[in-house]
Specification:
The protein is α/β, with parallel strands linked by helices. It folds into two domains: about 5-20 and about 245-365, D-serine dehydratase-like domain (Lyase, Ornithine Decarboxylase, Chain A, domain 1, Beta Barrel), CATH 2.40.37.20; about 20-240, Alanine racemase (TIM Barrel). Helices cover about 30% and strands about 20% of the residues. It is built from eleven helices and 17 strands. The strands form two sheets. Strands 1, 10, 11, 12, 13, 14, 15, 16 and 17 form a nine-stranded mixed β-sheet that branches. An eight-stranded parallel β-sheet has the order 2-9-8-7-6-5-4-3. Helix 8 links the parallel strand 7 (about 170-175) and strand 8 (about 215). The longest helix is centred in the middle third of the chain and has 20 residues, at about 190-205. The radius of gyration is 22 Å and the shape is elongated. It starts with 5 loop residues before the first helix and ends in an 8-residue tail after the last strand.
């Protein structure tokens, strides 16, 4: 059994409770910072994973240069930690873009864009506020969620942004290789295709005199292969800070690098072969494992052969058919969830475990920010 959270099992007053191990968090942050520095890459971590000013400041102390957010409300709060914030999400509706334009009075605000209406809306808001918003053109490199569909389309948007100065500033390119979950050794060809798209886009921009100061990409599964995309200048992983069973089962981390776990109590063993814990979808979420969807809803560290087979809102059902040991009523267990990011967002506060095993509560500063 991994001993990381053993002291918290006895000290936490009530469950379910999400615990972060500060020494593991710090090691994870420093490991990526060292890698990025060795490959002349900037790190702009996505704060969607931790939603915490304290965690953001820890990442910045380790060398991160700016932060990434998904929501304007997150940007407004994270601006207290960093003077350089990227909104990695289309900003379209008036309330959202007006708040971004006002925020740009005090910090550097950048937004990823993939449409002409979005660009023009941001320009209007920035003009009204008397500010400048930096834009990164979002290029779809294979995930097929957002992003323009070709280097030619990226050039067209870049030229329009350039026309709208000083309200807008063309800062570069944005991409997300979210489709890549293959093993690190197998990512060479996939990332090579990403690089080809980026290189062609950059060549088109430079041929017309457009600047490409930033090429922002990356993800946790590709983080340590980022050097295989030499055109990118910065990476935006999020999950790497805590890790979870998605990263473990896919081979991107080991269980000892999981800095977050959920402590639960066994509340029932009445059904043969099962134990029920006090954590269901409202704690663990309903996310299945990205690589192994039938592996259950996380890993029980004390019983690694057991399987969290079914969740309802407040119940988690653990099956022990493959485990020779079973817990008793009232026992506590430690679960590393499949996907830590939404689990954090379900908490108002979590427990932060210090090097000496002591605990303090940590507010989730941007929890529930929907806009």
């Amino acid at each position: 059994m991994v001993k990381t959270f053993e002291s918290a099992l006895n000290l936490i007053p009530a469950t379910p409770a999400l615990v972060l191990d500060l020494p593991t968090v710090t090691r994870n942050a420093q490991k990526l910072a060292d890698y990025a520095r060795s490959h002349f890459l900037r790190v702009r971590p996505h704060t969607k994973t931790h939603k915490s000013l304290k965690m953001a400041r820890l990442q910045l102390d380790c060398g991160a240069q700016g932060l990434t957010v998904a929501k304007v409300g997150e940007a407004e709060i994270m601006a207290a930690a960093s003077s350089d914030v990227l909104v990695a999400y289309p900003a379209i509706d008036p309330p959202r873009i007006q708040r971004l334009a006002r925020l740009a009075r005090t910090v550097t605000v950048r937004v990823a864009v993939d449409s002409l209406p979005g660009i023009e809306a941001l320009a209007g808001a920035a003009q009204a506020a008397g500010t400048t918003i930096g834009l990164l053109v979002d290029l779809d490199v294979g995930y097929h969620r957002t992003g323009v569909q070709s280097p030619a389309a990226a050039l067209e948007l870049a030229q329009r942004i350039s026309d709208l100065t000083p309200a807008l500033r063309l800062d570069g390119l944005f991409f997300y290789p979210g489709q890549i979950w293959s093993a690190a050794a197998q990512q060479v060809a996939e990332l090579g295709r990403v690089e080809s798209l980026l290189a062609e886009t950059i060549e088109r921009w430079r041929a017309t005199g457009l600047p490409v100061e930033i090429v922002s990409g990356g993800s946790t599964p590709t983080a340590y292969q980022s050097h295989l995309v030499p055109s990118q200048t910065e990476i935006r992983p999020g999950t790497y800070l805590f890790n979870d069973m998605n990263t473990v089962r896919a081979g991107f981390s080991v269980i000892e690098e999981c800095a977050a776990a959920i402590l639960c109590t066994v509340v029932s063993t009445a059904v043969p072969g099962k134990a029920v814990i006090d954590a269901g979808t409202k704690t663990l979420t309903s996310d299945r494992n990205a690589r192994f969807p039938d592996s259950g809803y996380g890993c029980v560290l004390e019983f690694p052969a057991a399987r969290i087979a079914r969740l309802s809102e407040e119940h988690g059902e653990i099956e022990f058919s493959q485990s020779s040991h079973r817990p008793r009523i009232g026992d506590r267990v430690t679960i590393v969830p499949n996907h830590i990011c939404p689990c954090i967002n379900l908490q108002d506060r979590v427990w932060l475990q210090q090097t000496n095993g002591s605990l303090e509560q940590l507010e989730i500063d941007t929890r529930g920010r929907q806009v």
